[in-house]
C-alpha cells in the first residue's frame, strides 16, 4: 500500500478510535515518501524529445541527406547507450528518461526517413514498427513507463488508421492482444490493467466504426472485456476490466436513450443474427460466472449488457436498464450495508434521473421552468440519498 493511501485511510482509523494520532504518525513514517522526481524526469524527457524533433523538422530541408540520417542514428544511439548505462548503474529514473528520448527519436526517425526517401505509407504500419520497438524496450527493462508508452503508441496508431485510412490495423491489434494482453495477464497490476482496458475500449471503437460494423457489436467487445477480468485481477486488487466495461456500457446506454428515439437512426440499424448468437453465448457464460462468484451481486452489472436496439421503444428500455442497474446496487448496498455499493448506485441513479428528466420533460416545458424544477428535484434527491448513505456509514460497513 502506498504512503498516500495509508495517510488517507488512517485518518478514518483515528476518527473511529482504532488508533491514536501518535500511532497513526508512526505507521505513516514506516512508508517512505516517494519523490516526484520520476514524474519530472519523464516530462523532461518528453519535452526534450519534442524539442529535438521540432528543431529537426523545422531545419530538415536545410540539412544534407547524409547529415539527416547521421543525426537520427547518432542521437538515438547516444541516448540508448547513456540510458542503459545510467539504468544499470542504479540511476533508474534518469536512465528511463534517456531511453524514452531514444524511443521518441526512433519513432520520429521512421517518419522523417520515409519523408526523406519519398516513401508514403498507406496504413498504420510505421506505428506498428514504433510500438514493437517500444514493446521490446519494456521486455528488456520491465518498466511501466515503457508499457504505457507502448500502449499509447498503439492507441494513437489505431486512431490514425481509423481516421486517415478508415481501417483497423490488424498488426497493431495482434501485437496488442497477444503482447500487451499477455503482460497484463502475467503482472496482474492495476495500472497495467487500466492501460490495457482503456486502449482496448478505444481500439474497439475504431474497429466498429472504421470497418462499418453496427454499433451494437460494442456490447460484445465490452462483454468480452468484462468476462476476462478474472484473468488479470490480482488478490485484493480492483476489478479494472469490470469497471471500464461497465462505464462504457453506461455511456452506450445513455447514448441510446437520446438517439434510439430517432426514426432515422432506428431504421438505419442493420440487424445481425450472428450478433445475437455470439452475445447469447457470452451472456450465458457471464450469468454462470456471476452465479458461481462468492459475491453473488455482480449479476447487476449484466443488466447493462442486454441489447435493446431491436425494439422501437429502445430509448425507453435503455433508460429502464440504467434505473434497474442503479436501484440494484442501491438495494444490494443497503441490504449488505456496504457503502461503496451505495455510492455507486447513488451516482448512477442521479445521472439516470437527470437523463430521464432531459428526455421526457425537455419538449414539454419552458426552458427556465425545466432547469428550475430539475435543479430542485436533484437537490432533494441528492439530500435524501446522502442522508441515507451517511446513516449507513455510521452504522454499517465502510468499503
UniProtKB/TrEMBL annotation:
<feature type="transmembrane region" description="Helical">
    <location>
        <begin position="295"/>
        <end position="311"/>
    </location>
</feature>
<feature type="transmembrane region" description="Helical">
    <location>
        <begin position="341"/>
        <end position="362"/>
    </location>
</feature>
<dbReference type="InterPro" id="IPR018677">
    <property type="entry name" value="DUF2157"/>
</dbReference>
<feature type="transmembrane region" description="Helical">
    <location>
        <begin position="239"/>
        <end position="259"/>
    </location>
</feature>
<feature type="transmembrane region" description="Helical">
    <location>
        <begin position="215"/>
        <end position="232"/>
    </location>
</feature>
<feature type="transmembrane region" description="Helical">
    <location>
        <begin position="66"/>
        <end position="86"/>
    </location>
</feature>
<keyword id="KW-1133">Transmembrane helix</keyword>
<feature type="transmembrane region" description="Helical">
    <location>
        <begin position="123"/>
        <end position="140"/>
    </location>
</feature>
<feature type="domain" description="DUF2157">
    <location>
        <begin position="12"/>
        <end position="145"/>
    </location>
</feature>
<feature type="transmembrane region" description="Helical">
    <location>
        <begin position="39"/>
        <end position="60"/>
    </location>
</feature>
<keyword id="KW-0812">Transmembrane</keyword>
<feature type="transmembrane region" description="Helical">
    <location>
        <begin position="98"/>
        <end position="117"/>
    </location>
</feature>
<dbReference type="Pfam" id="PF09925">
    <property type="entry name" value="DUF2157"/>
</dbReference>
<feature type="transmembrane region" description="Helical">
    <location>
        <begin position="368"/>
        <end position="385"/>
    </location>
</feature>
<feature type="transmembrane region" description="Helical">
    <location>
        <begin position="271"/>
        <end position="288"/>
    </location>
</feature>
<protein>
    <submittedName>
        <fullName>DUF2157 domain-containing protein</fullName>
    </submittedName>
</protein>
<feature type="transmembrane region" description="Helical">
    <location>
        <begin position="317"/>
        <end position="334"/>
    </location>
</feature>
<feature type="transmembrane region" description="Helical">
    <location>
        <begin position="170"/>
        <end position="185"/>
    </location>
</feature>
<keyword id="KW-0472">Membrane</keyword>
Amino acid at each position: 500500500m502506498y504512503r498516500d493511501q495509508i495517510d488517507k485511510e488512517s485518518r478514518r482509523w483515528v476518527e473511529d478510535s482504532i488508533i491514536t494520532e501518535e500511532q497513526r504518525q508512526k505507521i505513516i513514517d514506516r512508508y517512505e515518501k516517494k519523490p516526484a522526481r520520476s514524474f519530472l524526469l519523464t516530462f523532461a524527457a518528453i519535452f526534450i524529445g519534442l524539442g529535438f524533433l521540432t528543431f529537426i523538422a523545422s531545419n530538415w530541408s536545410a540539412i544534407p541527406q547524409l547529415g539527416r540520417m547521421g543525426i537520427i542514428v547518432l542521437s538515438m544511439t547516444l541516448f540508448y547507450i547513456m540510458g542503459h548505462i545510467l539504468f544499470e548503474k542504479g540511476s533508474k529514473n534518469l536512465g528511463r528518461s534517456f531511453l524514452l528520448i531514444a524511443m521518441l527519436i526512433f519513432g520520429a526517425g521512421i517518419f522523417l526517413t520515409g519523408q526523406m526517401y519519398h516513401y508514403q505509407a498507406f496504413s498504420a504500419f510505421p506505428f506498428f514498427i514504433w510500438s514493437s520497438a517500444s514493446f521490446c524496450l519494456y521486455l528488456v527493462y520491465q518498466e511501466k513507463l515503457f508499457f504505457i508508452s507502448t500502449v499509447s503508441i498503439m492507441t494513437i496508431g489505431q486512431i490514425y488508421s481509423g481516421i486517415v485510412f478508415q481501417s483497423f490495423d490488424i498488426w497493431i491489434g495482434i501485437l496488442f492482444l497477444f503482447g500487451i494482453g499477455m503482460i497484463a495477464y502475467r503482472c496482474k497490476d492495476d495500472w497495467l490493467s487500466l492501460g490495457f482496458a482503456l486502449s482496448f475500449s478505444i481500439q474497439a471503437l475504431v474497429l466498429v466504426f472504421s470497418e462499418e460494423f453496427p454499433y451494437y457489436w460494442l456490447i460484445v467487445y465490452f462483454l468480452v472485456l468484462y468476462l476476462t477480468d478474472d484473468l488479470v485481477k490480482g488478490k485484493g486488487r480492483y476489478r479494472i476490466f469490470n469497471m471500464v466495461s461497465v462505464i462504457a456500457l453506461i455511456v452506450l446506454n445513455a447514448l441510446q436513450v437520446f438517439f434510439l428515439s430517432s426514426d432515422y437512426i432506428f431504421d438505419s440499424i442493420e440487424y445481425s443474427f450472428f450478433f445475437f448468437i455470439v452475445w447469447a453465448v457470452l451472456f450465458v457464460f457471464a450469468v454462470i460466472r456471476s452465479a458461481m462468484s462468492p459475491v453473488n451481486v455482480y449479476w447487476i452489472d449484466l443488466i447493462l449488457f442486454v441489447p435493446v436496439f431491436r425494439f422501437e421503444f429502445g430509448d425507453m428500455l435503455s433508460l429502464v436498464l440504467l434505473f434497474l442497474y442503479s436501484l440494484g446496487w442501491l438495494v444490494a448496498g443497503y441490504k449488505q450495508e456496504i457503502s461503496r455499493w451505495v455510492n455507486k448506485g447513488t451516482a448512477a441513479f442521479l445521472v439516470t434521473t437527470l437523463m430521464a428528466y432531459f428526455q421526457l420533460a425537455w419538449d414539454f416545458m419552458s426552458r427556465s421552468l425545466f432547469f428550475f424544477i430539475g435543479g430542485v428535484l436533484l437537490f432533494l434527491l441528492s439530500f435524501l440519498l446522502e442522508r441515507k448513505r451517511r446513516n449507513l456509514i455510521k452504522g454499517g460497513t465502510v468499503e
